[in-house]
Amino acid sequence: MKKNILKKHSRKNLLLSISKSGSRIGLGTIMMLILVTLVLSCDRPELQTSVTTSGSVLSACQAEDKSETDTLTYRFKDGVLHITHELLLNCASSAVIVDASVSGNVITVNYTVDDNVSANCLCSKTLDYDLQNLTAGTYTLVINIDGYERLQQSITI
Protein backbone atom coordinates (compact mmCIF):
# COMPACT_ATOMS: atom_id res chain seq x y z
CA MET A 1 0.00 0.00 0.00
CA LYS A 2 2.88 2.33 0.70
CA LYS A 3 4.14 1.97 -2.91
CA ASN A 4 0.74 2.98 -4.29
CA ILE A 5 0.69 6.12 -2.16
CA LEU A 6 4.16 7.12 -3.40
CA LYS A 7 3.22 6.54 -7.04
CA LYS A 8 -0.02 8.46 -6.65
CA HIS A 9 1.73 11.27 -4.81
CA SER A 10 4.50 11.63 -7.45
CA ARG A 11 2.05 11.63 -10.35
CA LYS A 12 -0.24 14.17 -8.75
CA ASN A 13 2.34 16.74 -7.61
CA LEU A 14 5.24 16.01 -10.01
CA LEU A 15 7.68 16.53 -7.16
CA LEU A 16 10.97 14.84 -6.50
CA SER A 17 12.12 14.44 -2.92
CA ILE A 18 15.80 14.88 -2.18
CA SER A 19 16.55 12.53 0.70
CA LYS A 20 19.56 14.28 2.27
CA SER A 21 18.21 17.81 2.44
CA GLY A 22 14.57 16.94 2.73
CA SER A 23 13.69 19.71 0.25
CA ARG A 24 11.57 19.26 -2.86
CA ILE A 25 12.41 20.36 -6.39
CA GLY A 26 9.80 20.54 -9.10
CA LEU A 27 10.19 18.31 -12.16
CA GLY A 28 9.99 21.41 -14.34
CA THR A 29 13.04 22.86 -12.56
CA ILE A 30 14.98 19.64 -13.08
CA MET A 31 14.09 19.57 -16.78
CA MET A 32 15.19 23.21 -17.12
CA LEU A 33 18.55 22.43 -15.43
CA ILE A 34 19.11 19.48 -17.76
CA LEU A 35 18.26 21.62 -20.81
CA VAL A 36 20.62 24.41 -19.73
CA THR A 37 23.41 21.88 -19.08
CA LEU A 38 22.96 20.33 -22.53
CA VAL A 39 22.95 23.70 -24.29
CA LEU A 40 26.05 24.92 -22.47
CA SER A 41 27.96 21.68 -23.04
CA CYS A 42 27.31 21.48 -26.79
CA ASP A 43 30.25 21.87 -29.14
CA ARG A 44 29.69 24.96 -31.17
CA PRO A 45 31.08 25.02 -34.70
CA GLU A 46 33.78 27.57 -35.33
CA LEU A 47 32.80 30.66 -37.24
CA GLN A 48 33.73 30.15 -40.86
CA THR A 49 34.90 33.01 -42.98
CA SER A 50 34.43 33.19 -46.70
CA VAL A 51 37.81 33.38 -48.41
CA THR A 52 38.20 34.13 -52.09
CA THR A 53 41.14 32.75 -54.04
CA SER A 54 42.48 34.45 -57.13
CA GLY A 55 45.48 34.71 -59.41
CA SER A 56 46.59 31.08 -59.27
CA VAL A 57 49.66 30.80 -61.51
CA LEU A 58 51.83 27.68 -61.80
CA SER A 59 55.33 28.06 -63.23
CA ALA A 60 57.04 25.72 -65.64
CA CYS A 61 59.67 23.34 -64.27
CA GLN A 62 62.64 25.13 -62.76
CA ALA A 63 65.99 24.34 -64.37
CA GLU A 64 67.91 24.21 -61.12
CA ASP A 65 67.71 21.21 -58.81
CA LYS A 66 66.00 22.24 -55.55
CA SER A 67 65.54 20.31 -52.33
CA GLU A 68 62.47 18.16 -51.85
CA THR A 69 61.11 20.34 -49.05
CA ASP A 70 58.37 22.85 -49.69
CA THR A 71 59.22 26.53 -49.46
CA LEU A 72 56.42 28.91 -48.57
CA THR A 73 56.64 32.69 -48.52
CA TYR A 74 53.80 35.13 -47.98
CA ARG A 75 52.92 38.79 -47.62
CA PHE A 76 49.75 40.44 -46.33
CA LYS A 77 48.33 43.80 -47.32
CA ASP A 78 44.81 45.26 -47.21
CA GLY A 79 43.09 41.95 -46.40
CA VAL A 80 44.90 40.03 -49.16
CA LEU A 81 47.37 37.26 -48.34
CA HIS A 82 49.70 36.57 -51.26
CA ILE A 83 51.34 33.13 -51.10
CA THR A 84 54.27 31.83 -53.12
CA HIS A 85 54.75 28.09 -52.75
CA GLU A 86 57.74 26.27 -54.27
CA LEU A 87 56.95 22.57 -54.41
CA LEU A 88 57.70 19.36 -56.26
CA LEU A 89 55.07 18.27 -58.75
CA ASN A 90 54.79 15.93 -61.68
CA CYS A 91 56.67 17.43 -64.62
CA ALA A 92 53.56 17.23 -66.80
CA SER A 93 51.35 19.19 -64.36
CA SER A 94 50.14 22.31 -66.11
CA ALA A 95 47.62 23.79 -63.66
CA VAL A 96 46.58 23.76 -60.02
CA ILE A 97 43.10 24.70 -58.81
CA VAL A 98 43.31 26.49 -55.45
CA ASP A 99 40.40 26.52 -53.00
CA ALA A 100 40.53 27.88 -49.44
CA SER A 101 38.44 28.21 -46.27
CA VAL A 102 38.92 29.62 -42.78
CA SER A 103 37.58 28.06 -39.59
CA GLY A 104 38.58 29.83 -36.39
CA ASN A 105 42.30 30.46 -36.70
CA VAL A 106 42.95 27.73 -39.31
CA ILE A 107 43.29 28.54 -42.99
CA THR A 108 42.91 25.40 -45.09
CA VAL A 109 44.09 25.58 -48.69
CA ASN A 110 43.32 22.73 -51.06
CA TYR A 111 45.25 22.22 -54.28
CA THR A 112 43.79 20.08 -57.02
CA VAL A 113 46.53 19.25 -59.50
CA ASP A 114 45.63 18.86 -63.17
CA ASP A 115 47.39 15.61 -64.00
CA ASN A 116 45.64 14.70 -67.23
CA VAL A 117 49.02 13.90 -68.73
CA SER A 118 51.60 12.22 -66.54
CA ALA A 119 55.37 12.11 -66.86
CA ASN A 120 57.76 9.85 -64.99
CA CYS A 121 59.50 12.76 -63.24
CA LEU A 122 59.14 15.40 -60.57
CA CYS A 123 60.33 18.96 -60.82
CA SER A 124 60.28 22.08 -58.71
CA LYS A 125 57.47 24.48 -59.63
CA THR A 126 56.29 27.74 -58.14
CA LEU A 127 52.62 28.35 -57.39
CA ASP A 128 51.48 31.94 -56.72
CA TYR A 129 47.99 32.86 -55.52
CA ASP A 130 46.04 35.32 -53.36
CA LEU A 131 43.59 34.72 -50.52
CA GLN A 132 41.21 37.64 -50.06
CA ASN A 133 38.90 38.73 -47.20
CA LEU A 134 41.28 37.87 -44.34
CA THR A 135 41.82 39.84 -41.15
CA ALA A 136 45.17 40.32 -39.47
CA GLY A 137 46.08 37.71 -36.86
CA THR A 138 47.94 34.47 -36.21
CA TYR A 139 46.75 31.46 -38.19
CA THR A 140 47.68 27.85 -38.78
CA LEU A 141 48.02 27.43 -42.54
CA VAL A 142 47.25 23.90 -43.74
CA ILE A 143 47.92 23.01 -47.37
CA ASN A 144 46.46 19.84 -48.87
CA ILE A 145 47.33 18.51 -52.31
CA ASP A 146 44.75 16.22 -53.89
CA GLY A 147 43.32 15.42 -50.44
CA TYR A 148 46.62 14.75 -48.63
CA GLU A 149 48.13 17.15 -46.11
CA ARG A 150 51.36 18.49 -47.52
CA LEU A 151 52.27 21.38 -45.24
CA GLN A 152 51.22 22.91 -41.92
CA GLN A 153 52.74 26.17 -40.75
CA SER A 154 51.93 28.94 -38.28
CA ILE A 155 51.75 32.37 -39.91
CA THR A 156 51.17 35.85 -38.51
CA ILE A 157 49.64 38.37 -40.89
What does this structure look like?
By secondary structure, this protein is α+β, with helices and mostly antiparallel strands. The protein folds into 2 domains: 40 residues, no CATH class; 109 residues, no CATH class. 17% of the residues lie in helices and 49% in strands. The protein has a 5-stranded mixed β-sheet, with no helix packed on it. A hairpin with a 2-residue loop joins strand 10 and strand 11. The termini are far apart. The N terminus is likely disordered.
Q: Could you give the topology of this structure?
A:
Blueprint: H1 2-13, E1 15-17, E2 24-26, H2 27-41, E3 48-49, E4 52-58, E5 71-77, E6 80-90, E7 96-103, E8 106-113, E9 122-132, E10 138-145, E11 148-156
